[in-house]
Design goal:
The structure is a homodimer of 619-residue chains. Chain A is α/β, with parallel strands linked by helices. Chain A folds into five domains: 94 residues, Beta-grasp domain (Ubiquitin-like (UB roll), Roll), CATH 3.10.20; 72 residues, Ubiquitin-like (UB roll); 119 residues, 2-Layer Sandwich (Nucleotidyltransferase, domain 5), CATH 3.30.420; 143 residues, Nucleotidyltransferase, domain 5 (2-Layer Sandwich); 102 residues, no CATH class. Helix content of chain A is 31%, strand content 24%. In chain A, strands 11-10-9-12-14-13 form a six-stranded mixed sheet, with helices on both faces. A six-stranded mixed sheet of chain A has the order 25-24-15-16-17-26, with helices on both faces. Chain A has a five-stranded mixed sheet with strand order 2-1-5-3-4. In chain A, strand 21 and strand 22 form a beta hairpin. Chains A and B meet through helix 5, helix 6 and strand 13 of A and helix 5, helix 6 and strand 13 of B.
Chain lengths: 619, 619
Amino acid sequence: MRKVMDMTKHEVIFPGDLKLTVEDGTTLKEVMNDAGINFDFPCGGRGRCGKCLVRITAGVGEALAEEKKKLTEEQLEEGIRFACITKVHGNMTVEFLSDKNIQHKILLSSLDRSAKVEPHITKRYLEVEKATMTDHRTDWQRIKDGLTAQGNIAEITNNPVDVLRTVPDLLRQNQHKVTAVVYNNEIRSLEPGNTTDKLYGMAFDIGTTTVAGFLMDLYTGQQLSVASTLNPQTQFGADVISRITHVSNDPNGLADLNRVIIQAINKLIGEAAEKAGLTRNDIYAVSIVGNTCMHHLFLGINPRDVAIAPYVPIVTDSIVVDPQDLQIEMNPAGKVFVLPNIAGFVGADTIGVLLATELDESEEIKLIVDIGTNGEMLLGNKDHILACSTAAGPAFEGAQISSGMRGATGAIDHVTFGEELTYTVIDDVEPLGICGSALLDTVAGLVECGLMEDTGRILKPEEVTHPIGQKLKDRLIEHDGSMAFLLEETKTKKIMVTQKDIRELQLAKAAMAAGIQLLVKGYGIEVGDIKEVLLAGAFGNYLNPHSACVIGLIPRELEDRVKMIGNAAGAGSQLALLSSGEYQRCGNAARNVEFVELGTNPAFTDTFAEQMLFPEPNE
Amino acid sequence: MRKVMDMTKHEVIFPGDLKLTVEDGTTLKEVMNDAGINFDFPCGGRGRCGKCLVRITAGVGEALAEEKKKLTEEQLEEGIRFACITKVHGNMTVEFLSDKNIQHKILLSSLDRSAKVEPHITKRYLEVEKATMTDHRTDWQRIKDGLTAQGNIAEITNNPVDVLRTVPDLLRQNQHKVTAVVYNNEIRSLEPGNTTDKLYGMAFDIGTTTVAGFLMDLYTGQQLSVASTLNPQTQFGADVISRITHVSNDPNGLADLNRVIIQAINKLIGEAAEKAGLTRNDIYAVSIVGNTCMHHLFLGINPRDVAIAPYVPIVTDSIVVDPQDLQIEMNPAGKVFVLPNIAGFVGADTIGVLLATELDESEEIKLIVDIGTNGEMLLGNKDHILACSTAAGPAFEGAQISSGMRGATGAIDHVTFGEELTYTVIDDVEPLGICGSALLDTVAGLVECGLMEDTGRILKPEEVTHPIGQKLKDRLIEHDGSMAFLLEETKTKKIMVTQKDIRELQLAKAAMAAGIQLLVKGYGIEVGDIKEVLLAGAFGNYLNPHSACVIGLIPRELEDRVKMIGNAAGAGSQLALLSSGEYQRCGNAARNVEFVELGTNPAFTDTFAEQMLFPEPNE
């Protein structure tokens, strides 16, 4: 007898040697569903989202147009296909891709950092069956069953009245085709038809001065647009303390500060959405970092205690809030994810930095310094992290410096000392003043060229003995009864660094340096054990590490280990937005970081005094 | 050497032979806290709530005034004391009371049923420590730690912005003394000072005609007041179907019906609170039962599908809702607990009945019948329960009956046939008409006295042969071309039961009886296997079981097993309000009840036709 081969049946082999005989033309999705294989088809199996990837190691056919559009040539050659639309037309062996294989890389501007995109909010397309006389499950039950049948969601635990009210008309008016917006195990809303292709979020970094928002695709992790604005709270005070004072003095102060920051966030959502060709209704998730005061004001919580010893905030936990509870104008089914704080002056922005730098997963001990009006510092590795904050004062940001200005057009941003003095100006225009990085360079130059004592006293021209210093001593001029160093003289004004400016800088750098010393001591290590120094923040991105080491802001022996990482807080916000795992991780990290209170540390005053001196220059 | 006894130390022995040496004058609460014994002090240990009972089996002292006030003499003699205020003044042996011992009995008017009071919402008094330079926990963390330290709450899982906003001022203005309102593991609100003594709730039964609310003390289970009102939805239609028609025909129909029932609930909360000397803000929990249509309208969900085959509601799950989402005016930190449904015509009211009767825990098979416009029936025991519903029509409620009226003042409610005919009238006034129970008695009398054929045809006087019937045959009169039976003739009108009335009743009783027959058949038992028949509902409380059996509404052989249980749905609502365990149980029960659709059952039509006949009377 001759065995007749049935050409309409094929054998498909899945991992675990699971062999299935299937009809010709069946999709892999149908095969897997029938076999009870738990697999995720986010867009409901329409070849849209490109998330249901499998590798066909034997029997792979020509890729379909949808696959060619979304996959790389390399992937196509490897046999990667969409399980939802690939049809079986012969015997086939299928492999699943591990999580690692399908992870999307999040590219962060300044950090070489990748993470798996796993958005907090997900969407699931459903074709809900209709009730019959023999199947009495309710519409709501069918929706829940449809979601759990798709895998990844074990159980729906909520029965929200607002969503239930939409069910009758929504199903009837859309041929029972809906998209569920899901957060954790909760249905947040139902949308008509298939809307799985639209899922966006915005990561915010609320600075005391500037608010920046990054609009991201929550499927790919891609950044689609950026919008930023001056923090409108500046009208009530330039810094944290003056805003807290406003809250304490004015009965409407808290409401004012909360209202204007919410308005700014709403404005940025609208702008960023428009730039990306979207609407604010397409935004389903928002993440927030900011210092503890910005954090409290954003949430409408009185930050008063942050300014009063023992400087303890009201709350440090990760907080997830409904947009309505904050008047955030985005998709109301979305959620706002606020990163946790550590202490009154170590805020969610520092947690963002921690997240972006993965300090909590580092084998090596690293020092992370976020320099601004306050200097926040983290020291440690995956086993233990210490944090502290010092009131550095505004010198690093160019404030309260005689010729100081922010790092904007016209600011001298870098100064080089040599036989002649050279400098660069932001946007190459006539210089208007100096910003923090140029102040640092200048003071470092004064140290290295013997134009200043280690106490910070600027020498008189006749006291200068250093050979290069000799060439520059004409720039030492008298100003207000002390000496100053002249950088430039224009028709209208002198741009200089005065004795008083040096004192301001000394206070700031001593506070920072003392903080570093005490963290190192508290950690029980030597400075040399620090393998990397990461400078975060806008200022941290501009300063010359050499200058920072020459003046003793950063210990000199670490100079070649310094790396500038830019706005790491914003990068952390993006990570927390794109990945529920990362957000979870920062909650744990915040609880495990040990906060070191410098104010009550008896060694602080002595260390601070020591650090007021400038180090001896290397030859 | 002589051993000196230290008179200021005593030994306290706890269960498990735990021996502790404690200072004289220490309270048992302090001892237990220090020893890490997990024990519940709901009022924070001030001798107020009387919930922290222990039995002192050796070394018991005189009871304190607070104890004498709250405990019975029997309890005091047994050595029962409050652990929070009892001080150790000698060696002592302490026993914990098992859950069973301390359970408060909930007395339900018509049911011999007790349950443990374990309210959904609890209150905890806290004296929150202040932050110091060495203890940097936030205020919020201290509150959470204070709650978990009291036992019974393992973890607080929410960080609600609205509550966080209240923290700074609340603590400062109340010497850090606050009461937390807790639901599950969530803080719902913080109240100034100690408010643990105020914790009340209202159980509602939303009937198609009448809405009743019972105000209960959530600590003791005591009913403090009752308020009821006509369901204002009657202005849009007397019954379920006409209200659904209004929803379908009028674009504002759903909003109208939802608005008026919410207004009624709010009115009843206010009334019941006032009667009990409370305010609506003292109400922290509300429970709701009602038929599926009332349930959907209360929640604002379109009930249209309930009236269209296959009669499937939108949702059957237990639903817990924030008061704000329903515009319920009660304490906003409270919750509304809606009981689950089973099917379109087996609603949350039936689940209330199930809960009150404990059918799901019964060893014996019982039949529960809730008679109204619809007849809902449950048959089963702890292993399996079947449910069905039949459209009984309004006959049982006295509607669409020629002389019919509701069971109100002036209604003939019971009729006795004998040599002379006697009857009783509600409130002993001049009779105005008959209500359902009297209709049943009359028809049963007609059967038993041979004044009617088994087909339901009323005999003419000359056809009567039964000896007692002979004495009453003058009451057989012509009316609209058929016969009628005259009960009373007043100056202005005749109160009678007409041939048409009999036909209405026949339809109703045939539907109910057929439902019972099919449930019995579906369950695979004989009628005689039913050990108890429980009649619920207002009508079920008035009818004469003998009459119900004579006309065949209830199988005759079960007559001596019939018990009337009154408003069991309302009792179930009270249980679900007072006990989170009972509410949990009804969710499970609702999922496990098997709904039997009579409409598609091919045997229904035949059985219905059979049951149209009246049974042969016993001699």
